[in-house]
Each structure stands twice: as C-alpha cells, then as structure tokens.
Batch of 3 targets.
Target 1
Amino acid sequence: MTDAQLIFGILQNDERTWRYIYREMKSGFASILAQSFSVKMFSNDEIDDIFQDSLIVLMQRVKSGDVTSSREGALFAYLVQIGKFTAHNLLRRKGVRSTFEKVTNSAKQHNSIEEGIIAVDEKQQTQNDFLDTVIQRLPEECKAILKYFYWDHKPMDEIASILGMRSADSAKSKKSKCMNKIRNIAAQLFADDDFAEEVVRNAIERAALRELIEEERYNADNGFCMAALDIDSKAEDNEGEI
C-alpha cells in the first residue's frame, strides 16, 4: 500500500490498514530502534509497547494533519522518529542514559521532524492517560456503543440492531448516558477543563487501536496468519488506489 492509501485508511479507522502497518512496519521499526539504542536496553515487551505507543501517536498526528504523503516512505520515517523519542523518554523514566540525545541533536540539522512536533504536552498527556483509564473501566455495553459509533462510524439504528436494542433512540439514549458518565468522572479530577465530544472520540480511537494491536500481537506470538488480509490487499491492488 502507498503512503497515500495508508493515510486515507488511518483517517477512516480502517482496521485492514492498521493490520498492514503493524505487519509491514514492525520488523523494520524494531531493527532501526536496535541500531539507535543498545539492544539490551529494552525487553521484547518494552519494544512491543514502544511500537504500540508510537502507532497511537502516529494516528493522532495523521488526524491532526501533521503528516502528509509528500514522498513514499515518509510515513514509516515519521513513525521511526516517534519511536526513537518514545524509547528515549522510556529510558529517561527508568533513569538510564543513552547516546540518543547526541544523535538527535545532530539529526535535527538534516531532519524536519522536530521533537516538539512529536512530543505531547505534559498536561495533555495526563488527560489522555486519565481518559484512557476511564474508558477501560466503562461497562462493556458503553464501550461497545462508543466504539461502534466513533471508531466504526456505524449509524445508531445499526448499533441498536447489533446490540439487541429496541430502536435507534434507545441506542442514542444509552450513548448519552455513557458520555455523561465519562464527563462526570473526568470533571472530578479536571474541574477546569471542558471535555468536549472530540476529546472522548480521541480516547475511544486510542482504545480501539490498542485492542487491535493487542490482537495482532497475540496472533504474531502464536504464529497465526490471517489469509484474508493478504486477499484483501491483493484485491485493493487490483482495484487501484483507494
């Protein structure tokens, strides 16, 4: 898939696109990370976590318009830069020093991707982490409704049918209650902040992407192969660009 196709897929929350990114980019991502840092600095689980966190930041940057398909391979290069900063921050939290800072300072003269573009404001990160925890603790029905609505873009009548509700109005009412539950919990810690619907949408998208990545990680660890993905990719190639 081309960068333009990948970006389009990310914007649409297309799961086939994310599975493609996970399978096609993880190996190269881990290899470059090993070249930039001592291999012994990270466990396999930590590398998996760095990759997952980097994919989430990539999604956020694509949706904010910071990433475009100006040249082929730019998306992977951007993901790698995110990964390096994510890894560096992990080491810093662990109290481990690395040579990455020197590499970064030198690379900035030749690379348009600055740490400031990739880094998340500390206050914003605190809010994100808190909301992610809130989403995880929601009742399963709430999580299902919000995921279908914000991630899958399903209409309320279809959501009601999937979840066995009486009508679209029933699904809307339940969604409203779920949203109020999130806002009420959030207001207890962030009384001065207005948690708009877009903020909740972003949290739902992060949760959905984490779930998808965990599924891919499980499949990889157990040697599973999803042939349907390969068939879909070939079909897309035959149909032309998205």
Target 2
Amino acid sequence: MNPAKALFVAALLLLLQGDLAAQPAQSGETTVISVDSTNLRFSPSSVTVTEGDTVRFFWSGQALPHNAVEENGVFDTGEPERAVDFSFTFERGMNGTYAFVCEPHESVGMVGEIVVEPATEQAPEPEAPPVSEDTPFLPMSWTAMTLAFAFALRRLQGNG
C-alpha cells in the first residue's frame, strides 16, 4: 500500500469516528380538540391523555368566535377567535382532571374535560457499563492498529 492510500485509509477511519449514541425518543402524543359549531360543543368534549402528551385546540373559519379556558387558569387559548391554533403539553406531575369552557358559550353548555393519567414508569433497563457520550464509532486504538498494519504491509512488500 502506498503512503497516499495509507493516509486515505487513516483519514477515512478518523471520519468514521464520532458520537453515534442513540438519541432519546420523543415522547408524547398530540390530541386535537376542535369545535362543532352546529351544536356549540367542543369535539371531542372529553379526552384522556397521559403526562407528556399535548392537547391542541384547533379551529378555523368559524362563524362565531370561541376560546378554551381551563377553570383554574392552567391553560387559556386567549380571547375568543374564529381561528385558533393553541397547544398545551401536560408535563409529569400534572395528572388529574382539567375542566375547560368556551367563555362566550359556557351558558349553552360549551364545556370540556381533559383527564391526564400518570405516565407509566418504564421497566429499568439492564445495567450497562458506563459509556462516554462522545464514544467514537471506531476506537482510536483501531485507527492506530490500522495505520501500523498498513505501514508493516508496505515494508513487507518491499516498498519502503
């Protein structure tokens, strides 16, 4: 192997090194609540989610303006609007029941409820040896051994 090839192999191996650690998975689902303007109701009017999930209040082109306000002020989509796109994520520790209303139409029964269940604890994974976050794909020792092998091979072939 000539020196140029050996340097190319070494450079290639160095490029392959890096952080290939698994990224944490995104958790949480999104549930959409819209408006049934025919009946002046939220649709659906009751949902069950899990801690970490997001509830998205979404409507557009409504004849009447609406909003969604939680009775204790946990979330509020703002002033009544004909188009709303508002999301709220229920973090860990927020399990419970959340009642909300459309302020202009509460008197005609435009109310809703979100039940937030506790996040389930995942079973602990088997204990693994500690690994640095920047663990290279190919350890530096492999690179050194490859270079040593390339130079030894070059000498055995009588090129140096």
Target 3
Amino acid sequence: MELALTNSSGSAGSVEVSDAAFGVVFNESLIHQVVTAYLAGARAGTRAQKNRAAVRGGGAKPYRQKGTGRARAGTIRSPLWRGGGRAFPASPQRHEQKVNRKMYRAALRSIFSELARQERLVVMESFSVDAPKTRGLESQLKALDLTDVLIVVEQPEDNLSLAARNLHRVDVQAGAAVDPVSLLRHEKVLVTVPALKQIEERLS
C-alpha cells in the first residue's frame, strides 16, 4: 500500500509500505489488553508499611497485667497504640502483566493501520529544527496544522527534543521505541520516512 507524503506546502508524492504492517484489521480487544499491560508495567508498586514485628521497640511489657485498671497490653507496638504497627500493612507488589512479543507487535500493526485509515498518520521525508527553540518548532507544526502530535523520527536530535519538551501536547520518540500508549494519546502522528521504514522492519 501507499501512504501520502506531506510537506509544509501540501502533498509531496507517496511512499510504499507493507500491507502486513499498515493494512491489517483493527483489533480493539488486543489493543486494550496491550495498553492495559503497558500501563500496569509502569506502576511502581513500591508502597510499604510496617506490621507490629517490623516497628522498632516495644520489647518490654508496658505495665503489669493486673491492678492498673487499664486494658491488658503486651507491647506498645500493637496496632491499637499510636506509633504501633499496622494490622494489615501494604506490601511492595508487582503489577506487571505478561504480553508476549507477537501480541505486542500485532497491536502496534493494528494501531498504525487504523491511524493510516483515519488519516491521522502524517508522513514526511524528514523533520528537524535548526535550534532548540520551542517557538521554531511551534511555527513548523502550525504550518502543518498540527497541535496535538507525536513526532516519530529515526533518532531524536537534541534540538528537537529540547524544543518539544515545553509543548504539553507534543512528544518526540524514536521509531524503534514507539509505544502503543503514545500512539493513542495524540490526535495525529508525524513520522519521517526513515522512521517509517524502521517501524515497518520492526513489525514485519
């Protein structure tokens, strides 16, 4: 299949891509599973609290068993006491979900194919900025009528990355590291031809 090339003045020809990578059926359930697993893998899961055994101190009985008029107590680190351990403490846990490589690539193929069908995939020969200035990048994107966009290049340059980091609806990624969440988060995806070939090789 062919994807139209774009420049600041409009259409600029086309580029041939594989049907196996950019012309597959949209699989919503697979994409949902892969995106859920991707987001789950990003969770830290490092929350932790101490139980009564882990809290420092409390080795001695605070007062005698009988004769004080108070409730029985064996340690000041009981969950009933201020500064004591938790009865059911939170513990570190892993939220990772297994998604094999075949499923992950199939989800990316489905996403790219749907982006192409919806004309949300903007292909350019190259894309760069001369200086790490947000204003320069913003003017280039405005000429292309792009405001909410993921820019995918073969290898992000410092100028482009620095210029994009102050634009909250613009992200830059390498073709070899593009992920499904970023592809779905933005309204459009701008990809250069070298990055497109990189993605095609990755998904074939």
